[in-house]
Amino acid sequence: MTDLISPDLAVPEPSDLAGQPYAYRRAELVEPDWSRIPGWKDVTVEEWRSVQWQRAHCVKNVKQLRDVMGDLVDERFYDDLTRDQAERATMSMLLPPQMLNTIVPQGASDYTEAFYADPVRRYMLPVFSDRRSDWPSHPHATRDSLHEHEMWATEGLTHRYPTKVLAEVLPTCPQYCGHCTRMDLVGNSTPVIDKLKFVAKPQTRLDDMLDYLRRTPGVRDVVVSGGDVANMPWPRLEAFLGSLLEIENIRDIRLATKALMGMPQHWLSDDVRAGVERVSRTARERGVMMAIHTHVNAAQSVTPLVAEATKAMFDAGIRDVRNQGVLMRGVNDSVPQLLDLCFALLDGATITPYYFYMCDLIPFSEHWRVSVRDAQHLQHGILGYLPGFATPRIVCDVPYVGKRWVHQLSEYDEVRGISYWKKNYRTGIEQQDPEALNRTYEYYDPIDTLPAAGREWWKQHAGTSLAEAERRAAASRQAAESQKLLQIN
Ligand code: SF4
User: Fold this and answer.
1) What InterPro entries would the database entry show (predicted)?
2) Could you read off the pLDDT of 305-354 as tens digits, one per residue?
3) Which backbone phi and psi does 4 adopt, to 5 degrees?
4) What global pTM score does this model have?
5) Which residues form the domain of 423?
6) If we measure between CA atoms, which residue out of 246, 233, 314, 239 comes closest to residue 280?
7) Closest ligand 1 atom to 257 CA
8) Average pLDDT, the chain
9) Span from the CA of 173 to the centroid of ligand 1 (angstroms)
10) Three-class SS of residue 357?
11) Ligand 1 center–CA 152 separation, angstroms
């Protein structure tokens, strides 16, 4: 049916690794057979490899999922999904065939149970019964949990760290992840979340970002993100990158695209490859490092097409491709899952495992979040197996601080699940704040993971915390709105 499908060629565990807590084995990548899915039984290899076909056949709602999956999956799953969409989902549904095909990759005798248990399904198609009913959201969860809008130097340009910025060049992606940190802005509104909209015209926003970078020589590194840059028409992205490359102070450019995994067909298309080659050549001539950062959370997502797209990017002159996954319960919260993923990336696709972020404190994310203590154990468990340069750091993105390695906390109340963190730089909104480096910043573990005394404490104090979180969210929103008004005026 298709020459993309390989048999499971997993090599047996080498005897010298027997007895190790994790037994490395090299596994060949597999493109799952899409003809097992009723809606795709007649799809050809040419169609599957076509980015136009992939984009046209993305699953955007429960009806479309039912049309594709048919009765492989029981009606109770569709009901569960429908309820989640109505009452909990912070992201609208958008799943390219490439990603949907990696769920239950080998088929199963009880498909519905396997579908429920699948790690990719658990974060790309969350259902109501996945979420916690006791604490669906942490009392301190907020829509813009990293306070990026407050740190916008221009609309969509977050200046949090001293020498680097994040440019949110567009608010859409080819796929929407249930746990998206930028759920406040990215994607379509859901019944639960009315999304924030950019005010300025797209080209004006890009021009404003470039102007800021020209007059801010201390910034040397730009993460070009969104959303996902794969959703920006290539000529517009190329023009933006060309302008960035003309700014003398910019030495590192990183393109953020989960689509390298979710829709590798985009990065394999001729026009995009040719465009990446042109931009990479200019970057090389100017001594600028151009890299791709992708977002893969489970080993089964790394397929031969992902490896092919990655190779195409290296052939086009991209200097490095790195993975920034998100650590989530039920998805990748065990040492074997993390190491299987890292080795699939490294051995199979030459993608460097770089970070695992702890899932952020956004609404309805409690069932995904992992405590700092468990994250520390996982970091300990994965050390020593991978090359040092490809051993990912598990990081906590602490509100108002930024990424901190999970072992870097200064204090930890494990009963209440409150960790305390410090920082060594001022964010863009603290230039005049003499106390910024002395202050301690808090991060909160999921309440259901706490001992009984801690859970009881939150029951008693959640009201106060919730009121405080709401007050801070309102202040944060107001600050972002005022900044936008300032820009408009
Ligand atoms: S690809 Fe990134 S920006 Fe887009 S929905 Fe997923 S996590 Fe959010």
Assistant:
1) Aldolase_TIM (IPR013785), Lys_aminomutase/Glu_NH3_mut (IPR003739), rSAM_sf (IPR058240)
2) 999 999 999 999 999 999 999 999 999 999 999 999 999 999 999 999 99
3) -85, -15
4) 0.92
5) 149-488
6) 314
7) 1
8) 92
9) 6
10) strand
11) 19
Number of domains making up the chain: 2
Strand partners, 292: 255, 321
209-253 pLDDT per residue, tens: 999 999 999 999 999 999 999 999 999 999 999 999 999 999 999
- Exposure string of 407-432, with b = 16+ CB inside 10 Å and e = fewer, is eebeebeeebbbbebbbeebbbbbee
Residues 40 and 161 in one domain: no
181 lies in some domain: yes
Say if ligand 1 is within 6 A of residue 295 CB: yes
Would you call 269 helix, strand, or coil by DSSP? coil
Token pair belonging to 237: 């992205």
Calculate how far, in angstroms, residue 96's C-alpha sits from the geometric centre of ligand 1.
13
Q: How far apart are CA 152 and CA 208, in angstroms?
A: 11
Q: Are residues 113 and 185 in the same domain?
A: no
Comparing C-alpha atoms, which of 262, 269, 317, 265 is closest to residue 291?
317
* Ligand 1 nearest-atom number relative to CA 183: 8
- Break the chain down into helix, strand, coil percent, rounded to 5: 40, 15, 45
Residues 37 and 178 grouped into a single domain: no
Please give the distance of CA 148 from its chain centroid, rounded to a whole number.
15
- In terms of domains, do 354 and 425 share one? yes
Residue 15 in any domain: the answer is: no
The token pair at 126 is: 């969350």
3-class secondary structure, 120? helix
